[in-house]
Amino acid sequence: MSNPIIGKDCQLVYDEIADWAAPTWVPIPNAVDVSQPGITKNMVDLPSRGTAGWNPKGAGLKSMDLTFGYLYHSGTDAIFAALRDAFLQDTVLAFAVLDGPGGGIVGRTVQGFKFPGIVSEFPISEELEDGRRIEIKVDFARHVLAGTLLLPTWVSIAALT
Hints:
Blueprint: E1 11-16, E2 26-27, E3 31-35, E4 40-45, E5 57-63, E6 65-71, H1 78-89, E7 92-98, E8 110-121, E9 124-125, E10 133-140, E11 144-145, E12 148-149, E13 153-157
Antiparallel strand pairs: 1-2, 1-7, 3-6, 4-5, 6-10, 7-8, 8-10, 8-13, 9-10, 11-12
């Protein structure tokens, strides 16, 4: 039995959507409190006279989102600029929430959800006793690349040697 994975060892990464098939993941090291609360599936009612008064359910539409805080640093911050510009320009990016570094861990395959996302919320917080944070929300975005609709997928990344 292996040890449990601790959040500090996980990684949130992104890349340009054009690299979807073979991404070169860019880590987001200033991400804090990463969560995917919106990985859900709607259930639809499927009752009929033949279900004897029972209300069976069927799978409806799935949805996915991602939320995380971004600890802001003044000066040049290319990752902040990419996230900000994606928000301002409605740019779709590839995101992955992995249970380890984006390049893998020697001796272990890392895995998690990969999906095309659009930055939908970008509120800035300046709490008196905390670092300046941007509470970012990313929603699954409809994006067609080379004629293919990109959908969320579970990825496994073998360690780089």
